[in-house]
Amino acid sequence: xxxxxxxxxxxxxxxxxxxxxxxxxDLEVVAAVESGAAAVASAAVELPDVAVLDIDMPGExxxxxxxxxxxxxxxxxxxxxxxGHGKPAHLKRALAARVGxxxxxxxxxxxxxxxxRDVAAGKRVLxxxxxxxxxxxxDNPLTPREADVxxxxxxxxxxxxxxxxxxxxxxxxxxxxxxIVTKLNARNRTDAVRLATEAGWI
Amino acid sequence: xxxxxxxxxxxxxxxxxxxxxxxxxDLEVVAAVESGAAAVASAAVELPDVAVLDIDMPGExxxxxxxxxxxxxxxxxxxxxxxGHGKPAHLKRALAARVGxxxxxxxxxxxxxxxxRDVAAGKRVLxxxxxxxxxxxxDNPLTPREADVxxxxxxxxxxxxxxxxxxxxxxxxxxxxxxIVTKLNARNRTDAVRLATEAGWI
Lengths: 202, 202
Description:
The structure is a homodimer of 202-residue chains.
Chain A: E1 2-7, H1 11-22, E2 27-33, H2 36-46, E3 50-54, H3 63-73, E4 78-83, H4 88-96, E5 101-104, H5 109-120, E6 125-126, H6 131-138, H7 144-154, H8 159-166, H9 170-183, H10 189-199
Parallel strand pairs in A: 1-2, 1-3, 3-4, 4-5, 5-6
């Protein structure tokens, strides 16, 4: 029996998913909570096999932050993200949080049950409709340092501020920025921020 | 009408694909060749909209090399890779060659036709069954420099050789190697080469 913790803020969806998963003979929803913080607390008590977490939950912890904390505190519990959309930035954060899977709410119920079984077995699962998004993510042309610099541009810092923050000279930062704009085939820094954000690279 | 160049070394598959695509009212196979070199030559003459290229073809140019050359010489021609398996290394090379799409031969015929239409329209297409492979590829923890170093280890070079090749000190190379082994959670350098090769990161 695979023991499931479900976190979803919308009560109707939470109820529907609980009922749906309960129809599977090998799946059991041992807890159904409404926030990321409740999921972290519940995981520590229930020690579920798989935590199925909605990404967009209100409160201090969204689903991805909850996944990262559950991974750190309850290593035996694997995590499956469930979301309404596959934004590249979410997929990137899910990678960084080392989640076991990432499924869209548009997936057929039997695919969700199968994804839970795969994640419980230690496999990695990604919604097939996100194949191209994942491919684009893999196409990141920026070095980690260039991504750091561009992230600070996105935060509104100018070259001297970025230089101070990263302990570089302003000239070095400007060289990075020129390289970034060229690599991304962008019109300017602002355009580079837009392109890299859309692609999930920063 | 979408004009297609097909390159596939196995005559039976080449014939079957030509017949199959010919059934679609908006697709026309204008050339069907048996090698990468023939595909490059034919693309320059026929100026097709889409080149559908098998990856594993004998001869000097495999499908991915042919795709890169067609992309450089006939910019109006988009490329769709067709292969029997989705090795991470192939997917990575396909990204680097900036191909328009990557489909498995196991895909249903109607999905292949749809993929050709999407690629012709400038979209990117990836076989849904390769979603997890693409995700793993996006998870590359190595910096470009670390990947360079590890690729040379895979080529059989030791630290002093790598240092000479990359104009570094042997100590710096050894620091890179320690970082790589740690990042990949590998047992040793050989294990790191195996892990990174399987994941398509080098």
